[in-house]
Amino acid sequence: MLQNREGQRVPEVTFKARKDGDWHSFTSGDLFAGKTVIVFGLPGAFTPTCSSAHVPRYNELQPVFAANGVDDVVCISVNDGFVMEAWQKDEDAHRLTFVPDGNGEFTAGLGLLVDKRAVGFGERSWRYSMLVRDGVIERMFIEPEKPGDPFEVSDADTMLAHVAPGVSAPPAIVMFTKPGCGHCLRAKRALAEVGLDYDELAATPLRLRALSTAHTTPQIFVDGQHLGGADDLVAWLADR
What we know:
The protein has helices spanning 28-32, 48-67, 81-91, 105-109, 156-163, 182-194, 205-211, 230-239; strands spanning 14-19, 22-27, 36-42, 72-77, 97-100, 113-115, 123-125, 128-133, 136-142, 173-177, 199-202, 219-222, 225-228.
């Protein structure tokens, strides 16, 4: 049975990580002493849910966590330092700290090491998240013991609701642009001024026809809804 360790100290472990082509060693104390840290553990680097949902959303919300008293957000997996370094680069998760638990010692100390030999993984981490203050686990969100790889409670939005109740996550903004578009540049500057992230995509004719009746750029979507162009964005920002 998976174990909830709320109120206990994190395991004392020395980690071996790769950074800039060299080995670096650090301890649990280096990660947690005197800090408020969010940790999320997952089954493996480059795996589907971990790469498409777990890591990206924590990376997106890291500034919100930081604004609400969190010093670091740590992604930990039972993978070696080479793999974790490559995965962080591939994910462009520059806001997070990636920690390789290569021998599974930290995960085992939490009681969350599980047998994944049936899928060729050996022993890996069960999916979870936790809030740690000065080395003491304040809150743990452990995925339910179900077949497969459940992803229901260890997500970044659930953690945000615990860390900062009532604080909203930033909107999901996608902007379709063309090179040399002055209005696109104006829209980007407006978002930068208020610190809102966005994804930028090339505004091909097919994409614009499929998503809106407009043919000019930029075309901006917020939380799945078509907002409009640069003027519409400026007006929307003024009303927030």
